[in-house]
Amino acid sequence: MRKVSAGARLLAEASLVLVLWTASAAAQIPDKFTNLKVLPKNISKDELVGAMRGFSGGLGVRCNFCHVEATPGDLAGMNFASVDKKEKKIARAMMMMVREINGPLMHKTGIDSPVPVKCITCHHGVMRPESLADILKHDFEKSGVDSAKADYLALKAKYYGGASYDFRPRTLNEVAEWVANEKNMNDAAIALMQFNIEQDPTAAGSYNLLGRIQAGKGDKEGAIASFKKAIELDPSDKQSAKLLEKLQTGQ
């Protein structure tokens, strides 16, 4: 029997909750709609529910994210026509943006049979379509290395196995390189790289970057060890080999 990963199981459970929620919402949606500003006024109930499911899945939210509830947590009596929530106004603007992209802007590309843009194209199941690297950079600027590491682990525990964030080594590499080059904080960058290597000790590129940061700090022995490890993992890594030779020969 095939084992199911924790991430896949979490994603499946979340999807089931979302389906049940939107199914419940469908039962509350009236047969005639009012205050439609972007969607066609003659849209069918099935089409409307399908569109709402797309929004919910794309952002990982429920109906009450945009719509006003009579009672918190209860879809009965929900005021779908209300525009009291800013999220609904934002959603309408985003829908018009997507329409413009898929219409005249996509036509200008000259691409045959283009893939249409949807909410999930950018959001990947999260409310704010922000890359993991940008989130971690913000964490670092606000509270330092430990905050970035803690947030990475929390997000990985919640979203790993889905498409919301990129947990491959390159994300932390990007953050560490930014810390070293833009913030001039080599020790913090090295701490992030060591954390990155703990997550995946098989990525040669991580050791290459660690070696370059160590060399920039003046840690010759550390850099030599990192470049050797990078070459061990990837014998075709010419950059690490060249940098290693320079360090060993003092050139």
Would you give an account of this structure?
The chain is mostly helical and 251 residues long. It folds into two domains: 6-123, no CATH class; 132-249, Tetratricopeptide repeat domain (Serine Threonine Protein Phosphatase 5, Tetratricopeptide repeat, Alpha Horseshoe). It contains eleven helices and no strands. It has helices spanning 6-28, 45-59, 86-109, 119-123, 132-143, 145-159, 169-181, 186-199, 204-217, 220-233, 238-249. Helix 7 packs antiparallel against helix 8 and helix 10 packs antiparallel against helix 11 (238-249). 22% of the residues are buried. The model is unreliable at 13-22 (pLDDT under 50).
Q: Work out the strand percent.
A: under 5%
Helix/strand/pairing category: mainly alpha
Largest sheet features: none
- How many H/I helices? 11
Radius of gyration: 24 Å
Order of helical and strand elements: HHHHHHHHHHH
Query: What is the overall silhouette?
Result: elongated
For the termini, the CA-CA separation is: 57 Å
Mean pLDDT, to the nearest integer, reads 89
Domain module tally: 2
Task: Estimate the helix proportion, in percent.
Answer: 55-70%
Number of strands: 0
Outline the low-pLDDT stretches.
13-22
Keywords:
mainly alpha; 251 residues; Serine Threonine Protein Phosphatase 5, Tetratricopeptide repeat; 2 domains
Give a brief description.
With 251 residues, the protein is mostly helical. The protein folds into two domains: 6-123, no CATH class; 132-249, Tetratricopeptide repeat domain (Serine Threonine Protein Phosphatase 5, Tetratricopeptide repeat, Alpha Horseshoe), CATH 1.25.40.10.
